[in-house]
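Exercise 7. Predict the joint structure of the components listed below.
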Amino acid sequence: MNLTEATVLDALSGVRDPELDEPITDLKFVADLRVAEDVVDVRLRLPTSFCAPNFAYLMAADAREAVLSLPGVRHARVILDDHHASSEINTGVNEERGFEATFPGETEGESLDELRNIFRRKSFVARQEKLCRTLLAAGYSAAELAETRLGEVPASEAKEKYLSRREELGLDVSAEAPLVVDPEGNQISKDAVVEHLRFARITRVSIEGNAGMCRGLLATRYGITDPEEVTP
Amino acid sequence: MYEKDGEKYFVVDGHIHYWDASPENQQNVHGKQFIDCFYGYHTALSPEEYLWPQDKFEKYSEEDMMHDLFEVGYVDVAIFLPTYLKDFYVNGFNTTEQNAVLKEKYPDRFILNGRFDPRDGEPGLEKFEQLVDSYDLKGVKLYTAEWSGQSKGWSLKDEWAKRYLEKCQELGVKNIHVHKGPTITPLNRDAFDVADVDDAASEFPGLNFIVEHVGLPRLEDFCWIAVQEPNVYGGLAVAMPFIYSRPRYFAKILGELLYWLDEDRLTFASDYAIWHPKWLVEMFVDFQIPEDMQGEYGTLTPDMKRKILGLNAARLYGIEVPSEIPQPEPVGPAGEPTYPEAPLQ
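Solution:
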C-alpha cells in the first residue's frame, strides 16, 4: 500500500487527547504532516504553552507510535511546537526515553499509565452517561436502566463508544452484563442509579466544557475558525 | 452597585490583578509564555469591543483599572489575589506589596490578600507573619503550580503547607484561595487534581477554602469535594466569561454548581484584567437557564444572583453591605447526598 498523507492522518485520528477524550485530528492539534517515501514528519500544536506536559507527552508519544505502526513507515518524527517544555518532550518522544527519563527528578512512583487510566475511567463514566441520556429520553426510567443488560440496549454510536471504552478497561461487555456499572465493573443498584448518573453527568459536562475551552484557545492562538463558537 | 429591573446588586469582584508582565519585567521566555497564555484566555472569551491590544494587556495603568472596575464595571469592592511568579518576572507578576499601593490609596475599594509558599520553610513562616501583620490580611492566594528553582509546584498535603495553614488559623487569616496550575510536580500525576484541598479543608474546618475557577478543568472533582466539606467555596473566575461565548455551557456549569454546592458558596469574579467586570455583571443579571434545560437545572432568581455577585464574598470578608440591598437568608446546608461510589481518583 502506498503511504499517503491521508493514511497517516487516519492513523493519527486514532490518537485521543486523554483528558478531552477526542481525537487529536478533530481537535486540530495536528498542525502539519509530511510524508517523504518511508519517512513521516508530524507537527503538533496545543492551545497554550502551559498545557499540562504529561498529556502533551502522551499525545506526542501516541502519535509517533500510531505512525510507526503503519506498514511502510521506517522513520517517524513528531515535533510539538510552542510549548514551554517543547525541547524536552520532542527529545524524549523521538528518542523513546519515556516520560520519567525525559523529566528526571520531576516524577514520582507510577508511570504515566496510571494517569492515563484515571482519564479512561472518567471518560468511561461520561460515555455511559451520554448513552443513558439517550435511553432516558427514549422513555426508560432510571430504575429501569439499573436493571437493563447490555444486550437489551439498541445499537447506536453512543453505545459503541461506551462499549469500546468499557472493553479497554477490561470490563465485561457481554450481552448479559448490566448496563450501568462503576469503573470497577460493579453494578449500580436501583436506589443508587440517580445519584450515580448525576455524578456521571457532571463528569461529562466537565470533559465537554474543557474540550470547548481548548478549541477556543487553539483557535485564538493560531487564528483558525472555531466552529463551536456561538455568540448571542 | 448595579441596578436592573428594580433589583439592586452589590458587587464584590472576588478575583482581580494589578500585574506587570511588560517585556522589561519578563525574566525569561516563561514570563512571555505565561502572559501569552492569559492573553489567549482574554481574546478567546471576551466580546470584541472589550479586547485590548497585547501591550496594554501586559501592563495597564492604575487609571485603567480604577475606571474599568469602579467607574463603569459596577464593582463596589474588589479582592486582590496576588500571584508572585518571581521565577518568571523580575519584580514578580502581581505581589501583595504592589497591590498594597492601591489599597492604601483606595482603602474602601480593595481587599488586600497575601500568599505563602511552604517551600520557604521556617524563615518564610516568619516573613509571612510579618506580611500579615503589616497589612492586616484576612486571606491568602495560593498558587500551587508556582515554580521555585528546581521545584515546579507543591501540594496542600505537604507538611510545611500544614504549618502555614496553622499559622493562618492562628493569625485569623481565614480565607484561603487555592488555584491549581498545569505544571505541578510530580509531573506524572494530574496537575489539576484538587484532592489536596479536601484534606486541608477537613483538617482546618475554621478556614474557608475558596477554590478558584471552581476547580476547572476538574469541575467534577471540585464538586465532589465541596459537597463533603462545608467550608469549601467556588470562585467563578474563568467560568463567568462562558456566559457570552458559550451560554449553554455556562448554564450547565452553574446548574451543576448550584446542585452540588448551593447559592451561598459561589463567588463572582472577573479575573481582571483577563476579563472586564462590566459585561460579566450585565450579562449575569440578564442570564437565565435556557428553557429546555430548566427541567434539569431549575431557574435563577434575583436573590441567587445577589448572593453570587456580592453577598457571599461580603460575608467571607466582613464587608459592609448597604442597607438598600436585600439580604436573603442562606439556604442552609444541603441535604446529605448518598453516592454509590467513590470519586474517580
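Discussion. The longest helix of chain A spans residues 193-222.
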